[in-house]
Amino acid sequence: MAVVIPPLACSVRACGLLLERRSRAYVCARRHTYDIARSGYVNLLQPTDRRSSKAGDRPEAIAARARLIARGIGTTLIDAIAERITLAAPREPVVVDLGSGSGELLAAVMARAADRSRLTAIGIDISTAAAEQAARRHSEGLWVVANADRRLPLLDRTVDVVVSVHGRRNPLECARVLVPGGMLLVAVPAPEDLIELRRVVQGGAVERPRDHTLDQAHAALFEVADRFDIRERHELEADSLRDLLRGTYRGERRSAAARIESLARLDVTLASTVIVFRLRASC
Ligand SMILES: [Zn+2]
Q1: Residue 42 CA to ligand 1 centre (angstroms)
Q2: Could you tell me the distance, in angstroms and rounded to a whole number, from the CA of residue 1 to the centre of ligand 1?
Q3: Which of 124, 142, 166, 231 is surrounded by the fewest CB atoms within 10 Å?
Q4: Half-sphere exposure (Cβ direction) of 180: Cα atoms closer than 13 Å
């Protein structure tokens, strides 16, 4: 049986050649070498692509989101997206998650695969803490540290599905790496997402405005194939509310945490809009 080679590209500027696995490292034909961490991820971040020495979400935020998912909070969205990818993907799909966090979405995709050996699942995150957690939890995936706002470390026209859940978006790079007719799934928070929590933290009702820039940003390269909303409601106790705060808001504010502590429980809505884009044939 042919071995599927993941289409990872060297991230040295102006190189971009295929990276091949050599025991504990990935190496390109120009011998640029990236060691594989003990936990199994590979760091392809170049110094110029790093925004800070500890880029990305803090480990506490990543751990908080993983705990929520383990309690079944946020899994309706993950399951719906994984199902959609499984139904639409070809026989030997390459699926890339931008902002893969602790890896639960790709794990759900891998769990659904009819033939796991034919699926290539690549999770990209700028946080080494995220890549490390994903690699420890889901060793069958390929976990990469890279800045998805910059050039994606992937070869042209090699990816069948790109997914971004509440994460970074990069239409030009997605169009470059997708095969003709490839699929891009983008999930964004819907206006009523976490509205009860925001009411407590910020005071007053605070419905987010719907993001109308998403379609415009993708219109030149992608057509909208489908669009659907996913909504969950949970009655949450203090520990889950704390995790929602840690996992959602950057820099948990002391005053917000105190207000959450004063609640025994709270009904919370999680709501997202998922847009399924197809790469235009002309691209
Ligand atoms: Zn190279």
Answers
A1: 15
A2: 28
A3: 231
A4: 3
Q: What spacing in Å lies between the alpha carbon of 31 and ligand 1's midpoint?
A: 6
pLDDT score of 11 more than 60: yes
- Residue 28 alpha carbon to ligand 1 centre in Å: 5
Rounded distance between C-alpha atoms, residue 157 and residue 143, angstroms: 20
CA of 146 to the centre of ligand 1 (A): 15
Q: How far is the CA of 280 from the centre of ligand 1 (A)?
A: 30
Q: Are the beta carbons of 5 and 18 closer than 8 angstroms?
A: yes
C-beta of residue 199 within 8 angstroms of C-beta of residue 269: no
Separation of CA 5 and ligand 1 centre (Å): 17
The two three-digit tokens of residue 137, written as one number: 């939890």
Which tokens belong to 139? 């060793």
Q: Cα of 152 to ligand 1 centre, how many Å?
A: 14
Q: How far is the CA of 8 from the centre of ligand 1 (A)?
A: 11
Tokens 């859940």 — which residue?
165
Distance 218 CA to ligand 1 centre (A): 30
For 78-121, what is each residue's pLDDT tens digit? 999 999 999 998 889 999 999 999 999 999 999 999 888 899 99
Sequence-distant (6+) residues with CB within 8 A of 125 are 56, 99, 100, 101, 131, 134, 143, 144, 145, 146, 148
For residue 174, give the 3-state DSSP assignment.
helix
Give yes or no for a contact between 221 and 278, defined as CB atoms under 8 angstroms apart. Answer: no
What are 198-230's pLDDT values in tens digits? 888 777 667 777 777 888 899 999 999 999 999
Distance CA 134, CA 218 (A): 29
